[in-house]
């Protein structure tokens, strides 16, 4: 029973003590005057009676009533019911508030109304003072308080005949029950009767209609927002003009929070004087009168709910987490249905009769029922996460938040996380966690209705039914008896407050009231205490938890198969089947991403622990630790799924013996997980273990229990849970004796204490690193549990004990003393012990004892770890894979054996399994090997999905361009140290991180050795030399009697002489005779076929002794003659070294031995082609005008136009340029410089004179006019058209003949006043003149004007600036802009970075790659090279000679000259010809391979400048456009690209022939002296390989005779070479052919079971395997198959080339009966998309095979006859080439003829076919040959005439059998079998010509 009212107080208006206008409340009387013992009088009532302040009022207001709530220091709420009425103010009061009165009158004048009773008119100046009756109670019976105070007021106002003292006394002595549903009728002795209804359960809040009103005022969304805000501890402020509304709203909000209790500041009505309370930092629910709304504006973090306006304002800085879905949406929809039942029926066509709406009270309960269901769904299964730590003397209960969130699947839900961490929930746990107590509706709901709620989720009607059922129960709780007796309470008459009261409220007699109270007290003491027996019971736990929303975990859905894999793997580990376990491990590690698999793992591991210990061998230990780490790496610090908790006992159970007496436990290898340094995890673990032990304490059957009961206890199926045990113990507690109670308390305390000691040890195990001497902890343990410093770094492999070593590199936490490690751990453990022991009620003595023990425990463990660490260091790291040894070349030796590294992804998508598909091959774990030749990585991918693939990446040491240290952010599997990034110019990149076992010393040693090998001090240190030296048997030294001097001796002597010569060359002009050599050997044999004889001219020469050559010189020369360039000069017919002057003079050019001593120019070859008329002694003077003394020499002659191509270095200032510049400046005397300039002029004149088509001087025709930069008076009319002069440019566009590039020159006659055009700017890519051509197509050969200069000098624009042409000169300067070597270097660097990025791109995709490719400008440079080369080809083709004179003459000059010859001469497009071209132009003419490749230490600073690679890229571009014109394949070009930088062969070493001779390399020893050497020349290697495999051969090779190639050069037509981008990770670069034989064999034990059927199918990964090797083209495959079959049949395999030739012949034979002979046109037709000839563009038309022709012809009016004839020729051949008749060729006539080859070639019998349809004469090797060897276009034939026999002709035939066919290009000599057949051929050919 409880008092209905504790105090009755009368409060009146009183003056303010400080005399301000406002008054203050004064307590006039209070009853009882003495405080109750159990309930002191609350302070501050006078403030709450008038929350807006005490003020006088000018009119009588009606009485008001509201209930304020005060909370005392014990969190007890006091309900203050206040009834206020107004009385006329007394004079003292009026005087005190005169100001108020004045204010009031002003207000009235402004329009206030005075409601005065007519019967009692009051004077206008009369003021009224408020007076308040206050009832203070701890019970919340608002209506009873309203009635009781109203009754007292009525008695006073109406003057009833009842004593006020007795009414108040009765009120104060009235007692009522708290709960139980009983009704109590009370009367205050004034003829009244009230029935007080108590609720059935006092734990359920009583809300009346407050919740329904709150929803009406604010709406669903706003109330839900306030609900979430209150639960997540935000500040909430209600505003309203009604105090009662404020109180109801606050009460309604709190009613919604049930079963949680709001435990923060709760003030439904806040007085004005206390508004500063709103600035408190703690959460609150407060109501404030709307008049003070302005004061609330400054509050930044308060949610304001305006009840009158229906709005809720949430500040920007406040985030209210919403309810988790789907609860949010479900709750919203149910609430809307409850508030608006007709919502569901609104859309019905035939709505049912309207259902009567629920009453407001019922609706209130329905709304509360919705929230009750919501809490039941949110907190379902909460009792399964309660830990009962103590049962006696009072239950101590803790809630495992992490486990609850994890099992509900709400780990990341912000709302529930905050609710669980809030004060309200803590109160909920301590109040409702008690296992034995009275239960209520919520307990029933959460235990028994969960399944129903889940089933109803998708059925709104069933949900509504459930809500109504709950609402019924809630309503019944408040109103158990519907038919209550009617209240009877007197009320004052209407408008009674307006009547003048008979008197003020009287002063009451305290004695009377006190006497009544005392009487009642005495009665109460006499009566027996009415104790209502509380029905307590065990609280039901309900069903276990389920996730609030079943989220499918996608990839890791835990199928039974996955769990089976985990179980199998563990059983294999413990059965010792390591190989099986290893196979399953990748799948297990993947499965362990799923929760069920992790649980399964812990359960399986538990089965293998006996007596808390499981000793494993090293491999088992390693597997177990690896799986544990994999489990733990996905654990958060809270361990929501209990994985770390389940593993905690296991990490202290699994161990291995390191040595006698030293055991290593698994915990030392799984420390690096953030969960171990989280205090909350340890607390939850501790409480869980304590609960288990406390439960066990009470489950042990006591000795005194009868055996039958024991048996019954065992017979129970499920053992009771800890909560059940606790409930039973709490029930028995009152029945136990005091001693027994004391004993149980002590037992529980000692249990907690022993667990605390146990946990102190456990924590030291997992917090102390293995190597405590390192004096620091992991980074996240620096604060040990400080969440900011926690990082989730993981160990996923056991380190075989050496884990801790790498902590240094990974952690930033380093201390000075070992004790600091111990100190940090001790502090962490002590904090933990303090917290748990205090909460668990451990005595302070015990706690002190624990604090003493902890440091000892830690110190002991550190000592144990020292031994473990020492022993573990000795263990090999067994879990690391075996190092895969790479295969080495002969002569290649390991310098550094495998250093363990990780190969990291480098941005190429293929390795990461990107664009090409497939899993990520990188990162890979393996080793890096450094050999004398290469850097090689071999290893396995770390991704378990990839399986046993071997990853190989290698590059030659010589190709290394950049090495930089990298810091490794992400580590793979293990702790990694520093990394290294190596980039090679062969487009390989090794981005490695060294393993911890390598150490920084190992990494540094690797770097030093790599540097030493990359930059040897001299050439002898390179692999090409060193390998030969080490692997060839030592040659015996030559004996003294050996008379024959070797070539090496000759080379050495030659060098000495050359050095002397060069030393003296510029000092003296004296004739120089080399010293005679002691020549003991015989002269070369006379019968050697030496077609180039040594010239013995008698002219005086600087270097040639006048007495003739000594024999030794002859020997040197005969060696020089054998060089490639000489063979090529011979082929081209470029002069000879003849003994007879008459023969020599007839040749325009001659071979000069002037440089045989390399005295004139070191970088030139020994023999040079110079004009016949120039003497050797003049050459030295000429050479001085050119850079590096590289004077112009002939390197190629066109067979058709006889024009020659010359090359030289750039001009010095005193050369031709100087000559031109200083032409008109008279010089007083001839200086030496002038003479050499004159020599130079003579030399160029001699070159021009040697030209057969030398134009006479009558018509001065130039390719381009160049005006002087400083024109002055010498050139008054000359003008230069530049790009900055658009008018001039446009003029030239109109006047220029419209060839392909417009015209490169416009003569003064055709273009008005000499308009010059800047060729250089056009060649540099700014071609604005002339109509643009599609695809940058090159010009027709007729595009130049018919009369031209005889010689064009292509020079650098910068060099030829300001030069004006002289009309008398026969040559013309063409300045062009070229890029320098440094630009090539910069461009190459960018290209490397684009193709091999080095780190994953920020924005992956093709865009960034293409952008970086464009930035590199590599393709732009290739475009320029091709453009210049095509220009030179056209000039040569038109009959003008060209001198290329750029830079020093060894870089861009070499590129252009080589490309020109390749495009012009089909010979250079064969394998043999290309070799000759490279040997001649690149090697002999001194391209600086060693300097440009930075081969030596000296060249380290200059870096790699890949000039040769750029040339090969140009060849590759041409190859792509003309695939049928090249005998070699694309692979050949890649092979050369790789090996020109690899230093494997000696071919591309050193900078010139001079240097090669000096080392004795140029003329290799022949015969016996040669010895058994590995291939030192790349050409030998290619020849040897070509015999074995067709890898260098192009099957599409079907050349057109004498075809000049004119490739497109626009950047849009160029392709990025796949040499730059592709790589084969299966075997490394495929260019060392001996190594590329497939991956290494697997080790014996890992071979697949041989009994299994071996499938020949295999998976080919584009990013991994070599596609050409895995899927060779059809021809290669057939050749391989043939070879295999021949081997199987025991026949010696035939060479592939012979087979290939035979097959081609047979193919033609098969086609004959069908009428389907196929010459080269067959191959031509198979490649329709490639261009045979540039004149025709074949386009697929809309009608299938229709071909539309677009013929290029010269449109200029002034084009010559030859050019139009050429265009016509091209058109005709193009027209014919489109015919593909049923018979692929029409053979009008055919037969055998002998044909004389081109210049210097013998007669050969060929099979000729005359084809009238195609207007061709084709020839083949033999009758059955399918491949056409050449075509003579009949359109070019000018005459057919009888011929005469020449040298080498067949002897047996008569003279009349010879005839000649003369074409525009050349004369063909034929010989038939006899005169008759010759005549027949002549007739047939002439017949064809006449038909045409």
What does this structure look like?
It contains 57 helices and 46 strands. 43% of the residues are buried. Helix 10 packs across helix 16 (460-478) and helix 43 packs across helix 44 (1452-1464). It has 1892 residues and is an alpha+beta fold. Strand 4 (64-71) and strand 5 form a beta hairpin.
Beta content: 5-15%
**Rounded mean pLDDT score:** 75
Within the largest sheet, what's the order of strands? 25-24-23-22-28-27-26
Radius of gyration, in angstroms, nearest whole number: 54 Å
Major sheet characteristics: 7 strands, antiparallel
Number of strand segments: 46
Anisotropy-based shape: elongated
Structural class: alpha+beta
Low-pLDDT parts are: 98-122, 550-557, 703-716, 775-783, 785-818, 970-976, 1030-1050, 1060-1112, 1138-1143, 1214-1231, 1255-1335, 1337-1346, ...
Distance between the termini: 134 Å
- Counted by DSSP, the helix tally is 57
Helix content: 25-40%
Concise summary:
This protein is of the alpha+beta class.
How do the strands and helices of this protein lay out in sequence?
Elements: E1 2-3, E2 7-15, E3 23-31, H1 45-49, E4 64-71, E5 77-88, H2 91-96, H3 98-109, E6 128-137, H4 142-158, H5 164-173, E7 175-176, E8 183-186, E9 194-197, H6 210-218, H7 220-231, E10 235-240, H8 243-256, E11 265-267, E12 284-289, E13 302-306, E14 311-313, H9 327-339, H10 360-378, E15 386-390, E16 396-399, H11 401-408, H12 414-421, H13 423-432, E17 436-437, H14 441-448, H15 450-456, H16 460-478, H17 510-526, E18 537-538, H18 560-575, H19 578-591, H20 595-607, E19 614-616, H21 618-633, H22 643-651, E20 654-659, E21 662-665, H23 679-699, H24 707-715, H25 722-732, H26 738-767, H27 807-810, H28 818-839, H29 844-874, E22 894-903, E23 924-931, E24 934-941, E25 951-956, E26 960-966, E27 976-984, E28 988-995, H30 999-1014, H31 1023-1031, H32 1047-1065, H33 1111-1121, H34 1124-1132, H35 1141-1146, E29 1149-1152, E30 1168-1171, H36 1176-1183, E31 1193-1197, E32 1204-1208, H37 1216-1221, H38 1232-1249, E33 1279-1281, H39 1286-1295, E34 1315-1317, H40 1319-1323, E35 1351-1356, E36 1371-1376, H41 1381-1395, H42 1406-1416, H43 1418-1437, E37 1441-1445, ...
């Amino acid at each position: 029973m409880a008092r209905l009212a504790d105090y009755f107080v009368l409060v009146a208006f009183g003056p303010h003590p400080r005399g301000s206008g406002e008054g203050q409340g004064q307590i006039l009387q209070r009853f009882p005057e003495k405080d109750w013992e159990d309930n002191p009088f609350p302070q501050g009532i006078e403030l709450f009676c008038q929350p807006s302040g005490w003020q006088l009022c000018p009119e009588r207001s009606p009485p008001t009533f509201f209930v304020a709530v005060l909370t005392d220091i014990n969190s007890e709420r006091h309900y203050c019911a206040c009834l206020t009425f107004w009385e006329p103010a007394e004079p003292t009061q009026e005087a005190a508030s005169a100001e108020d009165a004045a204010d009031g009158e002003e207000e009235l004048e402004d329009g206030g109304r005075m409601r005065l009773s007519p019967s009692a008119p009051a004077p206008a100046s009369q003021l009224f003072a408020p007076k308040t009756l206050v009832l203070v109670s701890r019970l919340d019976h608002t209506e009873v308080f309203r009635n009781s105070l109203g009754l007292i007021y009525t008695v006073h106002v109406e003057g009833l005949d009842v004593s006020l003292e007795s009414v108040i006394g009765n009120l104060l002595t009235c007692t009522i029950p708290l709960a139980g549903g009983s009704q109590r009728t009370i009367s205050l002795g004034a003829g009244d009767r009230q029935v007080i209804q108590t609720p059935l359960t006092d734990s359920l809040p009583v809300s009346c209609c407050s919740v329904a009103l709150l929803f009406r005022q604010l709406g669903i969304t706003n109330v839900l927002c306030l609900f979430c805000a209150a639960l997540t501890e935000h500040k909430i402020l209600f505003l309203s003009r009604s105090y009662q509304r404020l109180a109801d709203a606050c009460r309604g909000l709190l009613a919604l929070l049930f079963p949680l209790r709001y435990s923060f500041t709760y003030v439904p009505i806040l007085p004005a004087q206390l508004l500063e309370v709103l600035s408190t930092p703690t959460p609150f629910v407060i109501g404030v009168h709307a008049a003070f709304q302005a004061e609330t504006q400054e509050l930044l973090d308060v949610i304001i709910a305006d009840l009158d306006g229906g709005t809720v304002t949430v500040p920007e800085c406040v985030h209210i987490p919403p309810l988790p879905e789907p609860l949010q949406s479900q709750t919203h929809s149910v609430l809307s249905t409850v508030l608006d039942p007709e919502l569901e029926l609104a859309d019905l066509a035939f709505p049912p009769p309207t259902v009567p709406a629920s009453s407001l009270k019922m609706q209130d309960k329905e709304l509360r029922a919705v929230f009750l269901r919501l809490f039941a769904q949110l907190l379902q299964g909460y009792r399964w996460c309660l830990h009962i730590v103590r049962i006696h003397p009072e239950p101590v209960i803790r809630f495992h938040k992490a486990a609850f969130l994890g099992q509900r699947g709400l780990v990341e839900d912000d709302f529930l996380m905050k609710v669980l961490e809030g004060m309200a929930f803590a109160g909920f746990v301590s109040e409702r966690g008690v296992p034995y107590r009275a239960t209520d509706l919520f307990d029933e709901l959460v235990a028994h209705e969960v399944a129903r709620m889940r089933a109803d989720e998708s059925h709104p009607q069933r949900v509504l039914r459930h809500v109504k059922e709950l609402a019924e129960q809630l309503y019944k709780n408040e109103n158990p008896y519907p038919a209550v007796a009617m209240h009877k309470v007197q009320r004052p008459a209407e408008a009674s407050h307006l009547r003048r009261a008979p008197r003020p409220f009287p002063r009451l007699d305290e004695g009377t009231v006190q006497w009544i109270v005392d009487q009642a007290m005495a009665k109460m003491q006499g009566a027996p205490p009415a104790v209502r027996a509380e029905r307590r019971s065990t609280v039901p736990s309900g069903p276990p938890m389920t996730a609030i929303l079943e989220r499918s975990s996608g990839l890791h859905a835990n199928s039974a198969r996955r769990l089976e894999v985990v179980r199998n793997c563990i059983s294999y580990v413990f059965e010792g089947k390591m190989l099986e376990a290893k196979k399953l491990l990748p799948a297990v590690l993947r499965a362990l991403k799923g929760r069920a698999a992790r649980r399964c793992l812990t359960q399986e591991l538990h089965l293998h622990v006996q007596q808390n210990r499981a000793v494993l061998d090293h491999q088992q230990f390693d597997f177990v630790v690896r799986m544990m780490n994999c489990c733990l790496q996905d654990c958060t610090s809270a361990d929501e799924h209990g994985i770390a908790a389940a593993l905690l006992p296991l990490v202290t159970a699994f161990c291995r013996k390191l040595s006698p007496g030293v055991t290593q436990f698994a915990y030392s290898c799984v420390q690096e997980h953030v969960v171990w340094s989280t205090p909350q995890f340890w607390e939850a673990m501790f409480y869980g273990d304590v609960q288990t032990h406390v439960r066990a304490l009470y489950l042990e059957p006591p000795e005194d229990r009868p055996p039958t009961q024991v048996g019954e206890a065992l017979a129970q199926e499920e053992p009771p849970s800890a909560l059940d045990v606790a409930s039973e113990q709490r029930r028995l507690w009152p029945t136990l004796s005091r001693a027994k109670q004391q004993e149980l308390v002590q037992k529980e305390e000692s249990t907690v204490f022993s667990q605390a000691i146990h946990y102190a040890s456990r924590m030291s195990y997992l917090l102390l690193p293995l190597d405590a001497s390192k004096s620091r902890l992991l980074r996240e343990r620096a604060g040990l549990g400080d969440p900011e410093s926690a990082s989730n770094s993981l160990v996923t492999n056991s380190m075989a004990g050496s884990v801790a070593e790498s902590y240094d590199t990974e952690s930033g936490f380093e201390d000075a003393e070992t004790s600091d490690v111990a100190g940090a751990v001790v502090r962490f453990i002590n904090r933990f012990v303090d917290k748990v022991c205090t909460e668990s009620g451990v005595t302070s003595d015990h706690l002190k004892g624990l604090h003493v023990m902890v440091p000892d425990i830690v110190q002991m463990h550190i000592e144990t770890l020292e031994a473990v660490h020492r022993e573990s260091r000795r263990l090999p790291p067994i879990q690391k894979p075996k190092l895969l040894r790479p295969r080495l070349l002969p002569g290649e030796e390991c310098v550094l054996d495998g250093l363990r590294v990780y190969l990291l992804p480098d941005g190429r998508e293929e390795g990461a399994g990107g664009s090409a598909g497939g899993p990520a091959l990188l990162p890979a774990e393996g080793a890096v090997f450094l050999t004398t030749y290469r850097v090689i990585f071999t290893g396995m991918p770390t991704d378990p999905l990839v399986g046993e693939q071997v990853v190989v990446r290698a590059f030659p040491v010589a190709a290394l361009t950049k090495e930089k240290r990298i810091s490794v952010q992400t580590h793979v599997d293990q702790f990694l140290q520093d990394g290294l990034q190596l980039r090679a110019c062969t487009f390989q990149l090794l981005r490695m991180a060294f393993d911890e076992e390598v150490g920084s010393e190992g990494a540094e040693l690797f770097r030093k050795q790599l540097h030493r090998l990359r930059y040897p001090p001299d050439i002898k240190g390179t692999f090409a030399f060193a390998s030969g030296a080490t692997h060839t048997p030592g040659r015996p030294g030559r004996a003294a009697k050996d008379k024959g001097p070797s070539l090496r001796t000759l080379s050495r002597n030659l060098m000495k002489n050359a050095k002397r010569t060069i030393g003296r060359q510029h000092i003296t002009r004296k004739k120089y005779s080399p010293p005679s050599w002691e020549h003991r050997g015989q002269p070369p044999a006379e019968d050697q076929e030496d077609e180039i004889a040594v010239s013995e001219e008698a002219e005086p020469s600087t270097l040639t002794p006048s007495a003739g050559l000594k024999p030794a010189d002859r020997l040197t020369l005969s060696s020089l003659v054998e060089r490639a360039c000489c063979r090529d000069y011979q082929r081209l017919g470029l002069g000879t070294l003849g003994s007879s002057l008459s023969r020599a003079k007839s040749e325009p050019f001659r071979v000069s031995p002037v440089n045989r001593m390399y005295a004139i120019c070191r970088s030139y070859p020994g023999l040079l082609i110079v004009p016949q008329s120039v003497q050797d002694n003049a050459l030295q003077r000429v050479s001085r005008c050119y850079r590096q003394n590289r004077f112009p020499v002939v390197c190629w002659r066109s067979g058709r136009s006889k024009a020659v191509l010359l090359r030289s270095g750039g001009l010095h200032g005193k050369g031709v340029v100087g000559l031109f510049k200083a032409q008109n400046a008279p010089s007083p005397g001839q200086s030496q410089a002038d003479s050499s300039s004159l020599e130079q002029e003579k030399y160029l004149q001699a070159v021009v004179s040697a030209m057969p088509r030398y134009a006479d001087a009558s018509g001065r025709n130039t390719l381009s006019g160049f005006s002087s930069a400083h024109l002055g008076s010498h050139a008054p009319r000359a003008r230069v058209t530049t790009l900055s002069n658009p008018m001039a440019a446009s003029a030239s566009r109109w006047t220029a003949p419209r060839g392909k590039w417009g015209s490169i020159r416009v003569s003064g006659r055709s273009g008005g006043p000499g308009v010059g055009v800047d060729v250089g700017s056009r060649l540099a890519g700014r071609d604005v003149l002339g109509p643009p051509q599609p695809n940058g197509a090159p010009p027709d050969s007729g595009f130049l004007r018919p009369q031209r200069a005889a010689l064009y000098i292509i020079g650098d624009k910068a060099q030829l600036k300001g030069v004006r042409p002289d009309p008398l000169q026969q040559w013309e300067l063409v300045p062009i802009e070229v890029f320098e070597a440094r630009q090539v270097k910069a461009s190459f660097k960018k290209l490397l970075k684009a193709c091999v990025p080095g780190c994953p791109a920020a924005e992956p995709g093709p865009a960034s790659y293409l952008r970086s490719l464009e930035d590199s400008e590599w393709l732009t440079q290739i475009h320029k090279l091709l453009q210049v080369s095509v220009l030179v080809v056209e000039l040569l083709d038109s009959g003008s000679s060209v001198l290329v004179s750029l830079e020093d003459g060894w870089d861009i000059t070499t590129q252009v000259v080589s490309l020109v010859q390749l495009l012009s001469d089909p010979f250079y497009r064969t394998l043999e010809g290309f070799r000759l071209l490279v040997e001649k132009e690149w090697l002999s003419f001194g391209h600086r391979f060693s300097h440009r490749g930075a081969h030596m230490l000296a060249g380290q600073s200059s870096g790699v400048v890949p000039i040769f690679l750029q040339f090969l890229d140009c060849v590759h571009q041409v190859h792509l456009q003309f695939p049928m014109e090249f005998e070699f394949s694309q692979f050949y070009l890649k092979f050369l690209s790789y090996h020109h930088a690899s230093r494997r062969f000696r071919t591309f070493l050193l900078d010139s022939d001079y240097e090669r001779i000096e080392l004795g390399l140029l003329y290799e020893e022949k015969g016996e002296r040669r010895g058994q050497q590995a291939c030192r020349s790349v050409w030998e290697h290619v020849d040897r390989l070509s015999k074995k495999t067709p890898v260098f051969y192009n099957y599409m090779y079907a050349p057109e005779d004498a075809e000049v190639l004119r490739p497109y050069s626009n950047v849009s037509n160029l392709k990025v070479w796949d040499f730059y981008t592709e790589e084969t990770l299966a075997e490394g670069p495929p260019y060392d052919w001996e190594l590329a034989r497939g991956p290494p064999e697997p080790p014996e034990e890992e071979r697949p079971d041989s009994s299994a059927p071996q499938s020949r199918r295999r998976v080919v990964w584009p990013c991994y395997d070599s596609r050409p090797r895995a899927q060779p083209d059809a021809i290669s495959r057939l050749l391989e198959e043939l070879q295999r079959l021949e081997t199987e049949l025991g026949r010696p395999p035939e060479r592939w080339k012979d087979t290939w030739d035979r097959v081609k012949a047979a193919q033609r034979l098969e086609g004959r009966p069908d009428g389907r002979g196929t010459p080269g046109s067959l191959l031509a037709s198979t490649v329709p998309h490639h261009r045979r000839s540039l004149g025709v563009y074949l386009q697929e038309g809309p009608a299938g095979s229709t071909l539309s022709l677009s013929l290029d012809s010269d449109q200029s009016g002034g084009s010559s006859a030859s050019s139009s004839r050429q265009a016509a020729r091209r058109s005709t051949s193009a027209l014919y080439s489109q015919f593909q008749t049923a018979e692929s060729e029409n053979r009008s006539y055919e037969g055998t003829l002998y044909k004389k080859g081109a210049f210097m070639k013998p007669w050969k019998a060929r099979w000729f076919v005359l084809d009238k349809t195609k207007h061709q004469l084709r020839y083949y090797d033999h009758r059955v040959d399918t491949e056409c060897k050449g075509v003579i276009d009949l359109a070019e034939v000018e005459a057919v005439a009888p011929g005469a026999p020449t040298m080498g002709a067949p002897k047996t035939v008569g003279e009349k059998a010879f005839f000649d066919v003369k074409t525009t290009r050349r004369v063909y000599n034929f010989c038939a079998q006899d005169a008759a057949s010759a005549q027949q051929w002549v007739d047939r050919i002439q017949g064809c010509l006449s038909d045409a």
